[in-house]
Amino acid sequence: MKKIVVLSGAGVSAESGIKTFRDSGGLWEGHNVMDVASPEGWTRDQDLVLNFYNERRKNAIKAKPNEGHLIIAELEKYFSVTVITQNIDNLHEKAGSTNVLHLHGELFKSRSTLDPNLIYDIEGWELKTGDTCEKGAQLRPHIVWFGEMVPMMEVAVEETLTADIFIVIGTSLQVYPAAGLLQYVRSTVPKYIINPNMPDIPGSSNLHLIEEVGSVGMKKVKKILLGEGKK
Ligand code: OAD
């Protein structure tokens, strides 16, 4: 079975009603990104950060996967599929994808501020000041903030190196190290880039640019993949 690796970003969830980052003028739901997505922001105003992610969680609970997510999940019938997502929502999982690697963390998980190995599921939408880990330390969102390490990057590189087909969907390719993954794809591997507003792709071979929204783009890619050399 051939292996597909999908790199997804905020754009794949846009049709599910979740706003992208860079399409909203540098603000993230009305906030300066560094106030709500950095260790300094957390130190400055913990409640602001907790409330910000609580609101994101409320939205994400209501959101449904769209055709783009669903087709990516469906491809598991024909291929081995690894999804590497920069998104913190769980729409790939809701769509049925079984192998999802969250590079930037997960909205529905919390983590101890004392011991980063203590990670918990968040039931419902709320994480509050006073919610603590089993060692008594405050819990924080399990999100990779600006200025923090990307612990899943090594696994993501391993996956990318072994891809037979690479799909990039709904990302502006502006945030590193995630954007750098493209450089690890073998030169002979076809790379499908789906984006209605195509970003610059740094010197890469075998590119197929599909200037469409995620659902339409994935339909096209599915057709190509199932028509030519499946499995
Ligand atoms: P961006 O907001 O930077 O880019 C979203 C991309 O999706 C843009 O290139 C849009 O053109 C495209 N897009 C918009 N609507 C679309 C649709 N319906 N279908 C397909 N594509 C569409 O989001 P990311 O590239 O994911 O990091 O941003 C990367 C990281 O920057 C995020 O993970 C986040 C952010 O700051 C952290 O929170 C650490």
Topology diagram in text:
Blueprint: E1 3-8, E2 27-28, E3 31-32, H1 33-36, H2 39-44, H3 46-62, H4 67-74, E4 80-85, H5 91-95, E5 100-102, E6 105-112, E7 119-121, E8 139-143, H6 153-161, E9 165-169, E10 191-194, E11 207-210, H7 214-227
This protein binds 2'-O-acetyl adenosine-5-diphosphoribose.
Q: What can you see in these coordinates?
A:
This protein is α/β, with parallel strands linked by helices. It folds into two domains: 1-18 and 65-104 and 150-231, 3-Layer(aba) Sandwich (Rossmann fold), CATH 3.40.50.1220; 30-62 and 109-143, SIR2/SIRT2 'Small Domain', CATH 3.30.1600.10. The chain has seven helices and eleven strands. A six-stranded parallel beta sheet has the order 5-4-1-9-10-11, sandwiched between helices. Strands 7-6-8 form a three-stranded antiparallel beta sheet, with helices on one face. Helix 5 links the parallel strand 4 and strand 5 (100-102). Helix 4 (67-74) packs parallel to helix 7 (214-227). The mean pLDDT is 94. 2'-O-acetyl adenosine-5-diphosphoribose is lined by residues 9-11, 14-15, 20-23, 33, 37, 86, 104, 144, 170-172, 174-175, 194-197, 199, 213-214.
